[in-house]
Structures are given as structure tokens and as C-alpha cells.
Amino acid sequence: MPTASISSTQVCAHRSKALSRKVLASLAVSTLSLAIAAPALAQEDPIKVGILHSLSGTMAISESTLKDTMLMLIEQQNEAGGLLGRELEPVVVDPASNWPLFAEKARELLAQEEVDVIFGNWTSVSRKSVLPVVEELNGLLFYPVQYEGEESSENVFYTGAAPNQQAIPAVDYLMNEVGVERWVLAGTDYVYPRTTNKILEAYLKSQGVADEDIMVNYTPFGHSDWQNIVSEIKQFGGAGKKTAVVSTINGDANVPFYRELANQGVEASDIPVVAFSVGEQELSGLDTAPLVGHLAAWNYFMSVDEDVNYDFIDAWYDYTGDDNAVTNDPMEAHYIGFNMWAEAVRKAETTDVDAVKEAIIGVSVPNLTGGYATMMPNHHITKPVLIGEIQDNGQFSVVWQTPSTVAGDAWSDYLEGSRDLISDWRAPLECGNYNVVQGSCGGGSDVASSE
Amino acid sequence: MPSSRLWLARPFGERSTLIFLAVLGATMALVVAANLLLAPEHPLHVSTYTVTLLGKYLCYALLAVAVDLVWGYLGILSLGHGAFFALGGYAMGMYLMRQIGDRGVYGDPLLPDFMVFLDWDSLPWYWLGFDMAGFAFVMVLLAPGLLALVFGFLAFRSRVTGVYLSIITQALTFALMLAFFRNEMGFGGNNGLTDFKELLGFDLSADATRLGLFIASGVALALGFLLCRAIVVSKLGRVCVAVRDAESRTRFLGYRVERYQQFVFVVSAMLAGVAGALYVPQVGIINPSEFSPLFSIEVVVWVALGGRATLYGAVIGALAVNYAKSVFTGVMPEAWLFALGALFVLVTVLLPQGIAGLLSRSRQQGSDDDSDTQPDTPTDTLDATPREATP
Amino acid sequence: MNSIAGRHWLSALVLLCLVALGLGQAWAQDAGASEAASSDQGPALLSALAESSFRDKEAAIDAIAESGDERARRWLESFAEGKLARVKDSGAIVVVLENRGRNWPVADALTLEPAGEISRRELDRVSINNSLRGYLDSTLALIDLRVDDPAQRLAAARDLLGEVEAEAVDSLSELAAAESDPEVAATLEQAIAIARVEQGDVAAVEALSGSLNGQARAALMQASRSDDVALAEAAQAALAESEQALKLNRAAETLYFGLSLGSVLVLAAIGLAITFGVMGVINMAHGELIMLGAYTTWAMQQLLPGQPGLALLLAIPAGFLVAALVGVAIERGVIQFLKGRPLETLLATFGVSLILQQLVRTLISPLNRTVVTPEWMSGSLVINEALSLTLNRLYVLGFAILVFAALMLVMRRTRLGLEVRAVTQNRAMARSMGIRATRVDILTFALGSGVAGLAGVALSQLTNVGPNLGQNYIIDSFMVVVFGGVGNLWGTLVAGLSLGVINQVLEPWAGAVLAKILVLVFIILFIQKRPRGLFPQKGRAAEG
């Protein structure tokens, strides 16, 4: 069995810009790289950056732009002289939206390619699949997407939002500024919406919202027939109290959902929908004219009026060769994550994983909204929370913003099991699930400590 | 019917089986040796990463053998064998989940993490017993077996055949996928089961355990292959082939067709379950996407590619496609689907008997072989309007 | 003037005028504009709008609305669309004409003449939010109530339902009394009644009794929770009046939902019913042919910018052609070599589907494409105040029926249909009668593929247009064909529609996921009972 040839599969830098040229280029360059793999390695060795985003399958729609973002950032870094005087080399693999394949590819990146850092993943399940591998092989993973929290790994850095950096401020805004009293929590049936809604339910009840004023609804992935649910939402909203929909509906299902909203005449002024998974990229598949005024909560919007943001967008236009390309929140997360990692490498003067892990805590880099992001000891970062309303050009206009940045919570204060847990990866604690009540590491429910 | 001992031993008389077992055994021995004896710097050293990868392929190969048994020899094109594979995987996953014990992030000694943060206060009844390895391993066989039994009982008794059967097997796995996606089901929803620590007390991240699992997968494949071969060459197998080629006529001859179908279908489902159970600890996750109909179709594609109704062809197909996938997704991440798609098209058009057909043809040219090892060339029974069947 | 200081205004309007006056003069000098501009209050009004906080913008809106300036409406509309912006350096207010890309074409807000392009970095958008937009809507509606066109007055009156402020009730009552159009008057009366009920007026409850209008019911529901017992009871009684009618309407709505979902299933499956049911070819690339139809719609809209409706109509023949041509290519390139081996076709077309998907991803984009819904397909058809049918789905339903009828005509009334049926029943016999079976194969496959393309055109109005579009429909399509009975177009129609209705009836009760699972289990059990579907093929050819 030809096993040795896997290890020689050198993956190359993709610098092709035009979309149509990508395949040709990747074919040509990969053939080339097969031939020159050995000499290339023999020269001074570059810093390898693994990119683990699906380029095919259902998640390609979201993840492929993140791959391009990473390639652009690496290219920019190389033009600026690389890092520690060494060239950066991207290693792209395709986990094909297949969760076991994510683990396998992560192992390939770490064990075969020996990359120094991985930027990747979108879905929670893919992160969960990769997590044991990254921990076992002591890699570094930067995860750029908003997620459900309830996790803290020594080897993972969460540059997307935790629920307290997105969901709770958004609900606060609706409650205080819009005067919403009745809530529909609609989401796709997977762990992120489940957990977020659980947290929101607990939060809303703590704010005095009655049970009958909360409606929870779950739909399968890629749900395309929203007639009944939108009709139910209309009914629920017709009870004489200001109603809002908090949507954790995932990716593809949003387009038919919003279309149905528009066609059944649910307007933002009657029943606003605030979404946590709908960004500029999701809207780019949609005619937004009927959706003006519906909301989204993120830590970044493309429309943010800051020069640093315009610079990033212009670079992205140039890189994609498309002046209609959009940027979104996870791209900003990669921008922050990449710069943090680069800063930490400079600080540690090495790409050694343990040194970088130690150096990165406390590192501050500019974000794209005119402020700074800092890596916290729990491997989450500080972010501002922005509420934006959909415009007719597929962009959001910011209508509200937290006065300062919010630090991400690994463990929610509103969930039974995680209330007492904190995460702090600095010495001497070095624990991802420290129970402050029992003063022990390892989650620590009552029975566990008695054993 | 000859006595059971003889019945199981019969495949050893076949040259093709012996060759297959020899090749499998030799390759495995080489891989193990190259992993253990050669230094990591040695160019021929096989890393543990590769060993695990190969272990995964072997599980897929066993699944392909199970599909070939019902498709190649019984004429049932199952587009839902992924369901049995996943059920076996889930049974193993549940055992591995229980083995985590209080090492989960919340440190709950009884409940898996996903139940803790969804506020479940007790273990659902169907999770009971999975802390015992023996029970779990029995369930690996029983869960897919029972599903196949019930499904087969309904389907074969009412003589659902051909394309209708294929489509409802697809409906079955699709329905199960949707069901397992539901978080209320208590199987972890979309995230599935993951973060396993140990199996039978062995640390799953240890190299030795990985090697052990690889060997176990190889042994399971060998045994599964032997069992299928034994079924195929027995009288039972001959009846199956008769059912495949002319179901009505076999029935008129007095055979209780549905019983044969039922038996072989259940055996095949159990084999798929075993494959799933060995697969899960090696890839480290089981989630509902294994139930996806596309995966099941892909398995059929492996079998067709390798050569239907040969069993060893299924193994070759599974290994070849998955190896190609592993390489292509790394070498040309944006174009590998073109390569894979083109492979399927070209092989079906140019190699109707699959790779096995190519092998046997070249062998036939070389020397006259005994007819026993020739792949049986099945006629299609899936045709919606089977003109061939009308006399 | 900044937003914080703005909060301390005692009388927003008075101060605003004072400040506006000052600013207006300053601006006029600054710009050195013509003598007409010096008396122009426009700059002041707009700057006030641009610079005040969300809280104070209502006052600025009022000032503009009451200014009597003929450009007021245009300003407010631009503001509502979020198109007003202030140039950072000069402070001049402009209307953004197109807000995509790096540089935006703008028009001067005062002259409304195009003023070239400005980098988006130089612009400060005048932001707006939902509550302001609502406020603007009712402000504009109040203006519109005085126009001559009764249709526009009616629309304005409808906008006012549930939006009437307490202070406006009296002036509205006068308007309603003077209103000549009875429908407008009735709507206004209702709007007033809603406002009165919201204020706790028991007498007004009577006027809303039995109303199916959502706003009216909302007001009644709110009243029914009131502490005032008399009001609460009256409101409950008024609500009960409409309960029965509401139930009927909901049942009708569910049926419509079901038929609509069913029509989508029928459209997706009917092409398969031809290639798979009639020809016996299992085409796994069927979903991708649907996808190509949807992408054709997108491409047509790209070719004809600004005319989404025309593009959509043209996409119907174009989508059919594109999918049919690709279908022929698949037939000639792959399937013809696999005659009589349907399982191998399954395998090969699965490969084709992978290639087509990735082709779209590479050549066009892995991202979803925007397909615009034309004006005449947006919104809904109002049957009564509790029941309205979404137009896009209504069109798709009609389209599905049309396609089905056309297909039936082709199969029953044309030479091709006759030949197809002949070849299906007995290929050898048909050939010996002089029918060129190969040609029939090609045409049938083209027909089935083309219909898949039509499905894609229709689906582009309902769901994502992206590379995965086809995958989402292939399994459902197979289910529908098999449930209906392979080789029977009527079966496909009945199966699609009934599965749609079953699904939608189950959904409110079981939830979307469980409903889908139940439908699948139902199909599995049904096939056990009737192994050849709803309408089994009869005759010799059907015997296995």
C-alpha cells in the first residue's frame, strides 16, 4: 500500500486571485510542489500556517472565504518581511464539511506537515472533532466563529464571540431601547442555538419575562419551508405586546426564512428579527430591500466607519479582484487572531507552541472597529458588541454599540452546570474548568469530589 | 446442508480467498513492522497517523463487504447501509462516552457533557448498561441487527423489491439522520459523541492503542470476509444468487425467498455495525452525518468501483476511493471533487466490472482458472421495467 | 450641537428652529451659494437631522415635514432608505445614489442634482433605526391622507392601523368624517378605534368586535389583560366573535401552505418522474440540473439589470434549454454507454453531480447568488384580513400546475409522447415498428432535464441559489416519485401535493423535524403496504 506518498504531499501556497483561475493554478502549483517538495524543504524552513476550512460540501459557502482571508493575511505579512525573518507558508487542506475528516486533516497538518499554527473550523461539531487531536499533539488552533461557549482548551483560542459578547447585549438592546416584551427564540437544532437559547431563556426570566411570553422553535439544518413557522410567529406577535424574534438560524436556512418573512409582511417595525448568524456574506445571497430594519448582533460590521476597516476592505477588494466582495465578522476574527499570533511569536521570538501560548495572553492588537482586542487568560478575547440594522444594499448600519469592549466568558453565568466555573490558563492555575466554589480543577460537581 | 464447521471452513479451499487473506495479512504485518521497528526518520517508517488512517480505511472496507454481500449476491441495493454502520458506531460511542466518567469538562461522574449543559438531570434509560463493555459490544451487533430485522420483516414480506427497496432504505437512513440530529434524542445532536478518552482501559491517544485498533480492524475485515465468503459458497448463497437473478422463479421453486433475504440482510447489517464500532474510536467522533444518504450512496460507489459480487472487489474499491480522497483533499483541495467525480464516471463507463473485473480479465488471459473464483456477473434487478426478466 | 446637549432641550421644536436658522446662515456663507440659497432653510433642516441623536431626530423629522418645502418628501424618503450622508470635510449633505463599491455616486441634497462620486471614507451616513422608520412612515402616511388618489389614501390609512398617537385621534376623526371614499373612511375609523381601545375606551371595543385585523386583535388582546374589568370582559367578548372565522382561515392557510410545499415537491420530482419513471434511468445529477436552472435565472438577471421580472420570464425558456442541453450531454456522454444497467448509471451520474457542483463553485462562486424577486411576485394576495397568500408561492403553485399540464399534453397528445410510451413499454417492438429509440431516449432525457431546469427557475424565487441547491431536493424527489408510483406522472402530482399537505398539517403539532421524520416513516410503511406506490404500473411490463 502506497503509504509513504501521503507524507510527501506538499501543499502549496495559493496566490491565485481571480476565482476562475483558482483551479488551474492549484492544479499546476500542486503538481509543481510535488516535484519540488524536497528541495523546498531543504532551504531555510518557513513558518507553516495550517488552514483548515472546508472548500467543498455544505460549509464551503461560509468557510471558503475564510481560507482566502488567511491567504491574504499571510501574503501581506510576507510582503512586510515575514515573521522573525522567516517566510510564512500557508498549508491548505480541504476537510470537505465532513467532521471525522476535520480530525484527520488536523492530524495531518500537525503530525505530517508539522504546521506551527492552525486557523480553521466553522461549525461547533468540527471544532469538537478537532479538539482532542489538537490537545493530543499540542497544536495551536484559532477558531474565528461565534459559538456557544462552555468550552476552554489550552490549545484553542476563541476569537469569535461567546454568548455574552453577542446574545445577551442584543437582548438588552431590544428590551431597553426597543421595548420588546415578548420573545421568539428560533434556531436550527444544534448545540449553538440550543445553548444560546438556554442562556437567553434563563436571562430573560431573570429579567422578569413570563413563560408564556417566550416561544422556542427549532428547525433542521437547511430548512427551506418556513410558511408555518412564520405564520406562528405572526400569531405569537399579534398579542398586543411588542415582539421580537431572536434568530440563531444557521446559514443556508436564512434565505428562505427571510423571504418568507418579507412575503408574509412581517416588517422590522412590527416584529424585528435579530440574528446571530446572519452577516454580510449571508445577505449577499439575498435581495435585502424587503428586510430593511431587521437586526443582527456582531462584533464587526463591514460598514463600520473607520480607516483601518476601509484599508482592510480595500485590500480584500484587491485580493479578490471584486469590488462587490463583502467582509464579515469571522473574517475580522481571523484578522485579529492572526495578528495576535504574529505578535505573540514576535514576543516569544519563537513559534514554539508552549512559548506562544504563554506569550499571547495579554497581547493587544487593533481590531477593525477602531479599538483594541486583548487575549484574555481564558483564551477568549475582548470585543465590542454592535447592533446593526439591515440596509437595502446588503450592509448593516450600526444603531447601537456597547460603550466599551466585553471580555468573552468561556462558561456562562446563566447555566446550571457552568455557573461556578472559570478558565485561566496562566500559571499557577492553568485550568480550563476551575470550580471557584470547590476550589478545584476539573469541573467538579459534588459527586466527583467525593470520589 | 453440510455441517456448520465444514460450512465455515469451505472458503479456505478457494484460491482467491487465500490470496486475499495472504495479501491482507502481509500488508498489515508490514505496516505494523514499519511502524514499530523502523525509526521515525527512516523513509519507510509508517507513522501512527498513517496507521490510524489505514485503520479507518479497513473499517470502510468491512462496510463495503457488507454492502456487497446484499447487493452483489442478493440483488438488494441498499442505499441505507450507513444507518447500520452509524448505529454500531453510536453503540461504541456511548460506551466510550460512559468511559470518560468524571473527566468531562463539568466533571459529572454519570452524565456526558452535552447532557449537563442541556440541563438533563438523569441518564435516559437507553444509556443504561453502556458503561459495561460486554453489553455495549453486544449492542454493536444487536442495534443494527434488530433494525435490519424489523425493516427486513416489513419489506421482504410484502415483496418490496428493486428500486422501491433502494429508495426506502434511503428514507430509513434519512429519517434516522434527522432523528439523531434532534437534541431531544439524547445522542448529542449534531455534535454527536466525541472527546473519548479510553477503550477497555487503554488510552485512545496512545500509539499502541491506535496500532491495536488497526490490527483489530484488519482482523475484523478478515473474519467478515470469511463469513461472507462462507455464506456465498454455501447452498444458502446459491439460493441467494438465484433470488438475485430471478426472484419469482426461485419462489415458484418453493424457496421461502424472504427468509433468505432476511437472514443475509441481518448478517450484513451486523457486519456494518462492527465496522462502525471499530471506526469510531479511530476517528474520535460519531455524529449523525454518518447517517447521511450521500454517505451510503458513496459506499455503493466503492463497491461498484471495486467490482460487484466479488467481495474482495469491495475491499479494493473502498481502499482505493478513500485513499484517493485523503490524498486529493490535501494536494488539490479545490479540485479534488472533479477528480473523484471523473473517476466514478470513467470507471463505470470503461470498467463495467470494476477493478476486480479488470484483475480477473487479466488473469483469465494469463491462465485458465477454476471457475469458482470468477466474479459472478449479476444482472440488474433494479430496473424499473425489467424487460430482461420477461421470458 | 451634539447628541448629549440635545437631551436637555425643553422644547425641541422651538430651539431647533433657532439653531437651524443660525446654521443655515453659516452654511450658506460657507458654500457661497446663490442668493436663492440664503433664504433656503434646507441646509439647516438637514444638518439638524444629521447631527441630532436618535432621540432628537423625531423633532428634526417634524421640522422637515412641517417646513412645507417641496423637497421634504424626497429628503425624508432618502433618510428612510438610509441614503442621506454628510461629507466629512465640508459638512454638506448629499443623497447617496448607489452605495456599493469604493466610491459612491451622490447627488446634492439641496439641488438634487448628481454631484459626482465621493469616496465612502469621506462620507458620514445619517443613521436611522426602526423606531424612526416607523415614525417616518406614519408621518408620511399623515401627509398622504390629504392626496387626491384614493388608492394612496387607502394605503396610508392602512399604515396608520395601530400607529395612531393619542394626540392625533381628534384630527384624524375630522379627516375620517370628511373622507369621500367609504373604504378609506372605514379603515380610518378602525385605526381610530384601535387607538381608543389602546387608551382604555370601552365604547370603542364595539367597533373592533369580530375584526380579523391583526392590529385590531392585538389591541383587543392588550385590552383583555387590562385591570379594568369592564374593558377586559368587553375585549374578550369581542375577541371571541372572531375566533371561529379565524380558525377557518387558519385551516385554509395550512392547506395553502401544504399545497405550496407540495407544488415545490412536484416541480422538483416531475423531471425525475420522466427520466427515472419513464426511462428507468436513475439520474443522481437531477438535483444539479435543478441548480443549473436556478443559476440560469441568476445569469439572466445579471444580463438584464434592473428588469428582474423580464429576466425571470426569459429564464423560463433559458433554464429549460440550459438544463436540457446539459441533460443531453450527460445522456450522450455517459448514460448511453450504460444502457440496461441502471445501477451503473446511478454511480456515474453521482460522479457527474459532484463535478457539476464543484464546477459551479469554481466558475461562479461557492457563495449563494442573489436572485431578485420581481415586484409583482413580492408580498401577498390579501383574501381577507386574516388570510393572505404569499404571491411568490402562489405563482410557483400555478407554474407547477402549468408545467404538469404541459407535460401531460406532450406525453398524451404528441408524436414524441406516443413514441416515448411505446419505447417504454417494449423497446424491441417499438424499434421494429420503425421508431428510432435512440432519438427518443435523447429527447426524453432532454425533456426530463429541461423540466428540472424549470424547477430551478421556480426554486430561485423561494430558496438559496447556491451549489448545494440540488442536493437538498434529490432525496425528496426520489421519495415523491416512488410514493406516487414509478412511471406515472399523475402519481407524482398526487404524491407531491399530498406529502406537502401532510407535512404542513403535522408541522404545527409535531415541529418541523418530527414532521419530516413522520412523513418518511409514513412513506416507508406505505411502500410495505403498496410495494409499487400509489398508482402502480399495470400490465406485463410491470411484472418483476
Automatic annotation (TrEMBL), chain A:
Positions of transmembrane segments: none
Keywords assigned: Signal
Pfam families recorded: Peripla_BP_5
Domain of life assignment: Bacteria
Endpoints of the signal sequence: 1-42
Protein name: Urea ABC transporter substrate-binding protein
Annotated gene: urtA
Automatic annotation (TrEMBL), chain B:
Primary localisation category: membrane
Region (Disordered): 362-391
Membrane topology: Multi-pass membrane protein
Keywords: Cell membrane, Membrane, Transmembrane, Transmembrane helix
Annotated compartments: Cell inner membrane
UniProt-listed Pfam families: BPD_transp_2 (PF02653)
Domain of life: Bacteria
Segments crossing the lipid bilayer: 20-39, 46-67, 73-97, 134-156, 163-181, 211-232, 263-280, 300-323, 335-355
Compositionally biased residues, Low complexity: 374-384
NCBIfam families with a match to the protein in the record: urea_trans_UrtC
UniProt name for this protein: Urea ABC transporter permease subunit UrtC
Organism of provenance: Halomonas litopenaei
Lineage: Bacteria, Pseudomonadati, Pseudomonadota, Gammaproteobacteria, Oceanospirillales
TrEMBL record, chain C:
Record field: transmembrane: 255-282, 310-330, 342-360, 394-411, 440-459, 479-502, 509-527
InterPro entries: ABC_transp_permease, ABC_UrtB_bac, BCAA_transport_permease
Subcellular location, principal: membrane
Pfam families (alphabetical): BPD_transp_2 (PF02653)
Subcellular location: Cell inner membrane
Coiled coil location: none
Recorded superkingdom: Bacteria
Keywords per UniProt: Amino-acid transport, Cell membrane, Membrane, Signal, Transmembrane, Transmembrane helix, Transport
Signal sequence range: 1-28
Membrane topology, record value: Multi-pass membrane protein
Record bears the keyword ATP-binding: no
NCBIfam families xrefs: urea_trans_UrtB
Database matches in PANTHER family: ABC TRANSPORTER PERMEASE PROTEIN, BRANCHED-CHAIN AMINO ACID TRANSPORT SYSTEM PERMEASE PROTEIN LIVH
Family listed: Belongs to the binding-protein-dependent transport system permease family. LivHM subfamily.
Protein name: Urea ABC transporter permease subunit UrtB
Biological source species: Halomonas litopenaei
UniProt lineage: Bacteria, Pseudomonadati, Pseudomonadota, Gammaproteobacteria, Oceanospirillales
Originating gene: urtB
